[in-house]
Amino acid sequence: MSLLASKPQTSEYPGHTDSVAAFVPDQSRAERTTSYAVADFPVPSGREEEWRFTPVDRLQSLFAETAGTALRREEFLPEGVTLSSLSREEWLASGAPKPADRAAVVAVDQAQSVTVLDVRAEAQPEEPVRISLTGEGALSHAHTLVRVGQFAKVTIVLRHEGDAQYSELLSVVVGDGADVTLVTVQEWDDTALHLGQHDVVVGRDATVRHIAVTLGGSIVRLNTNASYAGPGGSFEALGVSFADAGQHQEHRLFVDHEAPHCRSNVEYKSALQGDSAHTVWVGDVLIRASAEGTDTYELNRNLILTDGARADSVPNLEIETGEIAGAGHASATGRFDDQQLFYLQARGIDEDTARRLVVRGFFASIVGRIGVPEIESHLMEAIDRELEGTA
To answer: Ranges for the SUF system FeS cluster assembly SufBD core domain (predicted)?
Structure first.
């Protein structure tokens, strides 16, 4: 039996789209195209289901088959971690998923090389791996593979800043029993464009946490896809975004449960302020007939700070077996809670400080799970700076 479900919670805020008819997918996620051939992905028009929220007219440079330049890169690699490159033939044998949209396949086709980050089996570096990528206003493509060996435990922080027109395919293949936290931070300049496909393959009994933090850029659109190479795997996808006036921030999740007795948990939170600020969250979970014992849940919360902002939230469950441990989703969008603000002000806290405390509390449950204190502190300071412009 196949069950297609899409039932987001409603909101009184008029900028939140929750028409059930608009949310029913046009096809199973299992039927979506994946390919290494650019010709298999026409240039999006905006009428396609997967592009209908995205301002595709502003992204034409990332859909064209045009060579770009690499972003400037700085890295810190602790013991047990190496950086190298692969040929296209070696990449095809890596077991990583194929590109799933036009921007990703162009990135693969136009990237200068396949950059490979290897974490040795059983390595447990005390310091996080840190990679910073800085744009200098040019068109850029990246094709990156992260391979984590069996029973390794590692945190990887990937940070983006500067200005660029940037598309990427990032694949993370995690060995059996490994424990990986990947934090991707988008602190682009206001004019930057960023389209990314992040694929995570979770090994048998492995644990993977993918954390996406988006605080800048004109358009940022990240597709995070998870699949399982064996039973017992656990995948957690967490996200924080703060959209200002004119910014479009879009996060799409697809968790493909094919192996039995695996777990997934998705939690994304966004705050929006300013005219035409727009966030999009789409969470698709597919539980195939073979995925007995699956336990999955996804949650999206959006906080509207000013008039003129809009949040679209679309959770979807597709279930092909009744033999599961649990499956559910929730979505809500609302205005700033004036009662919380009043409560704090009644205790002598000025309005600006009270507003900052409420928003900090909204994000703290996710930021506090990154596990890298200096990164957590930096992000909360960045959120404070965003709040300085709130009316």
So the answer is: 134-362
